[in-house]
Task: inverse folding
């Protein structure tokens, strides 16, 4: 079981002998720019990410933001996520400022964050498949909304658009967004091992764990969560109508788009 993998080991990419405060003092935190990933590659099974020992503070529920960011071409899992499993895939990542030009062999993993519905208090475990694992090296997480949309789940991150609710409209729950300045986010926490076993938590899959997420070749709009909203009008023959009156479903539909389509 996935939980057994977590219980038996350490998250990939974490340093065993350094606390979070020590990492900050050494400037180990990652500063973000536009994050782009290279081609995915498969490591040999003998070199797959293995968990070995859990840090003393590993079960502390760290609270942080999950910020929406299309500059990151793949979801980035930070301190408020818990590593669940991986398939041995890695990629190189560009876009961090400071001491890092390119991060080599960043693990591609399945991770989970905890979230409570602010309206009901009900707890959820939100799973991200094919996310980039950074753990406590990243003090928050980044959600690429297009990776979620490509899984068929509607995401509305435009607070100006009043016709859709501001958040993730999953079949199982609506996750409302917050905003601070131009930043769109929701708060979550790293679940404890007990949370993973707790049946009061509803499990929600936010991204696809079956089909590969390839940000370089993905065809945007091929899996529209809101349905196909584009209508192509080529040539339509209409019968003459009396001025100011509409006849038939086609005239009625076109007239609702623009009065210029009303036959005269």
Result:
């Amino acid at each position: 079981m996935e939980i057994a993998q977590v219980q038996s080991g350490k998250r990939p990419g974490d340093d065993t002998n350094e606390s979070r405060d020590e990492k900050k003092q050494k400037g180990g935190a990652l500063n973000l720019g536009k994050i782009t990933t290279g081609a995915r590659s498969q490591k040999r099974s003998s070199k797959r990410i293995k968990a070995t020992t859990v840090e003393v503070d590993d079960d502390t529920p760290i609270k942080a933001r999950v910020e929406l960011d299309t500059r990151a071409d793949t979801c980035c899992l930070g301190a408020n996520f818990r590593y669940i499993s991986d398939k041995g895939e890695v990629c190189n990542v560009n876009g961090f400022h400071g001491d890092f030009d390119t991060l080599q062999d960043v693990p591609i993993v399945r991770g989970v964050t905890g979230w409570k519905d602010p309206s009901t208090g009900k707890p959820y475990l939100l799973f991200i498949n094919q996310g980039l694992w950074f753990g406590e090296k990243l003090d928050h997480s980044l959600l690429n909304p297009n990776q979620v949309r490509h899984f068929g789940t509607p995401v509305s991150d435009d607070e100006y658009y009043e016709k859709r609710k501001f958040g993730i409209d999953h079949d199982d729950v609506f996750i409302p967004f917050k905003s601070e300045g131009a930043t769109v986010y929701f708060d979550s926490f790293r679940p404890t091992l007990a949370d993973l076993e707790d049946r009061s938590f509803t499990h929600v899959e936010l991204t696809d764990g079956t089909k590969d997420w390839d940000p370089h070749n993905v065809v945007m709009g091929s899996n529209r969560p809101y349905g196909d909203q584009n209508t192509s009008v080529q040539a339509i023959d209409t019968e003459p109508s009396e001025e100011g009156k509409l006849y038939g479903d086609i005239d009625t539909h076109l007239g609702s788009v623009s009065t210029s389509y009303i036959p005269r």
About this structure: The CA atoms of residues 81 and 113 lie 5 Å apart. Confidence is low (pLDDT under 50) at residues 1-27, 44-57, 226-247. The helical segments are 2-7, 20-25, 145-149, 193-197, 248-257.
